[in-house]
Structures are given as structure tokens and as C-alpha cells.
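Batch job 17 of 40 flagged for manual review because the log was empty.
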Amino acid sequence: MLYYNERMTEPGRKPGRPRNKGLDEALLQAGLAVFLEAGYSGATLAEIARRAGVGTPAIYRRWPTKADMAIDIVAHVSEAEAIPDSGSIRDDLLAFMALRLRTWRTPLFRKLVVPVLMEGNREGALASHIGTRFLDYRKALEARIARAVQAGELRADTNPGRLIDLLMGTITMPLLFFLELPAVDDAAVIVDQVLSGFRVQEHTSGAATRQTR
């Protein structure tokens, strides 16, 4: 059992006192264990508190809802990965997709992230919170795609957001309909097929001659 000793007199502590980081860590670890064992719908904050050896008020002081705690757990255990910038947009998108395929196949995403996303569809405030916390990577990736457009790797009319949606759709659609995700090895095929509609087309003199006949 994950355990952290917190005296129940904490509610009377003076305002402005720094939060106990050791307790935060214990609660996050206990929450992760309970969510993975019971799933998002089956997990309770009472059980998480019991695992951490505290009362539920210790959780509610930090996370008003189960969804708030789940979001912090995902952010806590997920390793931040910088968007690649190797000079080749294909190689960078390939690295991006391979990482996404690896992470979205894990129990954490299936048992925690997907249910929270589904709940966000029903609650506007939660959807906004999720967007703020987890979609920052899109801004960096859109900027990387924009640089590829400027470098002439992609067509001038390329919509970075649309390109990302097409790539991520190969992951989110199977999850939505409870289908098997593509294998990590499929990342190259996915990237190449999507990029085929965005790459700058080279017109050879032979092609131009055929068109004028």
C-alpha cells in the first residue's frame, strides 16, 4: 500500500502555507494505482485516500473532482517530449507518430485518459480544462509544420492543424470505436500516406509535355 502520514488537523493550518509535496506525490501514486486497477468509473476518491493513508478532505483540498485528479495524474506520469526538428518534416512526423502510438496503447491511456476525454464531451468546463492542459503540443507541432511549409517541403496552402488531425485520426478513431490501434511500425506508412496530399509536387518536363499534347 502506498502510504503517507498526514495528521487530520491539517484543515486548521494557516493560509498560505506551502502544500506538502510529499503528500501530493503519495496521493498521485495512490490515485494512479487505483485508476489502473479499477478503471476510471470504478475508482473512488475514498479508496485513493485510504491507499495514501489520509482522509478524503486531503484530496478535495487539492482536486475538487475525480476528473481533476485524473488529469493531474496523467500530466505527472507522462514524460514531456519535445517536438522533433531534424530538418526533415517526414522524419519529425514519423518520430511524433511512433511516440503517440506507443503511449496511447498503454493501460494508462485506455483506462484513464480515454474515459476522461469522453466525460469532457459532456461537460464544457472539463473539456476546456483538458484542452488547456494537454493540447499545447499542437501549437509546437503546428509551428514545426509551418516551418516545413516555409522551407518548401510542404505545399504553401498546407493547413498545419488539418495535417495533425489527419495523423491523429488514425489513433483516435479506433479508440472511439473500441478497435485495435495501428502498430507502432505502421507510423511510417501513416505519415507517408498523409503527407502524399501535402507534399510539393514536382512537375517534370515530360509531364508538362504530355499535358500540352
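Reviewer: the log was empty due to a logging misconfiguration, but the result itself is present. DSSP finds eleven helices and no strands in the chain. Unflagging and moving on to job 18.
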